[in-house]
Amino acid sequence: MTNKPRKWKWVRRVLTLATAMAVALSAGLVALGAAPAAAGGPTLVPLISFYSAARGDYFTTTQSVWTCQYYHTCSQDPDYDVVGMQGFVYNPANPQPARTVPLYHWWNPTRGDNWLTTDPRWAGEVGDRQYSGGWYELFRIEGYVSTQYSSVFGELHSYWNPTVGDNAAIGTWERDQSEPSGWTRYRFEGYLFPPSSRPNLECLTDDTPSYQDDPKWNALGNYVNDWDAPASFLDGDALKVDADPNSTIRIDYWGTQKPVFGHSGDTAPGMPAPGLPPYSLIGRVTSGAMYVEGWGWAEAYEWFPVVGTVDTGSPSPSPCLLYESRGGTGQKFQLSFNDSNLGDNGGYAPVTVTQWW
Predict the structure, then answer these.
(1) pLDDT digits (tens, 9 = 90+) for 230-260
(2) How far apart are CA 338 and CA 302, in angstroms?
(3) What is the DSSP string of 81-144?
(4) φ, ψ for residue 211 (rounded to 5)?
(5) C-alpha closest to that of 44 among 173, 162, 146
(6) Which one of 139, 158, 192 terminates a domain?
(7) What per-residue confidence (pLDDT) applies to 175?
(8) Which of 114, 131, 208, 262 gives 20 to 30 Å between its CA and that of 53?
(9) Is residue 230 a contact partner of residue 327, using CB atoms and an 8 Å limit?
(10) What is the C-alpha to C-alpha distance for residues 242 and 319, in angstroms, rounded to an integer?
(11) Are 70 and 297 spatial neighbours (Cβ–Cβ below 8 Å)?
């Protein structure tokens, strides 16, 4: 194929309802209802989690004075560290769209507990107070989450830790089997929207790419492999990784071979990506974050799936990946294998990275 020249102009991708709907519809989503009136800025806003070790408090919000910290466009709060992006919700400044529920944010000053829920028993107006082991005040509505399933949507779950008296609204712990000790999941709150961008839509619809590796290159089985990114790798780029269908790697010195396409549902406790199939081809970025179609967000140095599975014989399609730099530079996209000991591995997987911008 002929690769497109990149226009060397940094462009911040703007979230638009039209693109978000196109992405969702391309994945078979039933219509979500009419667009809200353009009364409060963007249609979708990011839902981002923070954590204060000193306060023992998880805090998830769409407030721009906090989410700017995720994008490094404002100063960092000294008490709270960024946990990561959970997904996108409808802007609370706009009218509530059909087939959504409000995401209420309650606050308990005694416990220092920020609590998000869509439970209708906790519906109310800002300033309302309710008792649950202590008095909570309705602080704000963070947005509106979908009640309809789509394969491209993420999930938001609620967790409770009785030892520290804290609630947490996190979308990644269940997926990664990574909830910290002492936390118990007790409620599903709703579905989170994916990011929206033209490059990601072009990947989802298998449109003509801007760049594709030619020839293929070998991802070594005993190595963390840097992608060369011949056309650069920038904020807002969409990627897809394909490996030869019969690719295997050696996983020990005795010659045991394993396919680089795992089976969905297989997990690998103790592996770099415990929620993903063992020995499967995985990826990560060294700064920023990556959105993985049908899987969700991965922050820097967090491994994520890059190829499909072999449940039905031939591998299923690889997911689209959308990169968010978070204001960083010098980022790399890396490939490796879901094995806790790469040192005794051998072989390689011939791979092709396709890119849209």
Answers:
(1) 999 999 999 999 999 889 999 999 999 999 9
(2) 12
(3) EEEEEEEEEE-TTSPPPTTEEEEEEEEETTTTEEEEE--GGG---TT-EEESSSEEEEEEEEEE
(4) -155, 150
(5) 146
(6) 192
(7) 83
(8) 131
(9) no
(10) 9
(11) no
